[in-house]
Amino acid sequence: MAASISARPVTPTLSCGARGRRRCLIVLASLALAACGAGGPKFESSDITGSSFGHDFALEDPDGKPRTLTDFRGKAVVVFFGYTQCPDVCPATLATLADAMKQLGADADHVQVLFITVDPERDTPALLKQYVPAFDRRFLGLYGDAAATARTAKEFKVIYQKVAGPTPGSYTMDHSAGSYVFDPKGRLRLFVSNGQGAGVFAHDLRELLNGA
What is the pTM of this model? Predict the structure, then answer.
């Protein structure tokens, strides 16, 4: 696997309960291996260029339009998996990405942020249409039924599972907490760990937009 290490190596963070920790370790190991190597552009997040996963998805936007990665060719694309009732990581990540867009200025128009729900049972297209663009009007939520969600998560090595709450509708979702970044040619290039900050996104997105 041809890849190069980031300028500041990071450990991918996952939001996982006790029941999901074994699978979390497997994903962490695979992402760490993808980041091995030396040389290349000086990214501040983990360079996973050449990874064998994360090739594409087949989902729908809130208007019911089928979407694949090809639809966004020509833009740098940030993919984040989460759910609208997430109490912390998801809104924090979207707020961070919104801040990064501000830092990018006019370059932000060449970036597409995609929020893929891991909770299609509650995250209806109507809810995604209201929730996701509230952080930035250019952000887009993507939806799939249970089978499509599972296929997409497997393709991106994302872990998610339902954790029962006090009532049937009050469950939470353990899920991977990191973002995948594609260059304008549609190639998976970077993994940004949870909590790295808007400056990391802005720096690395600018590098990709400049042809890195």
Answer: 0.82
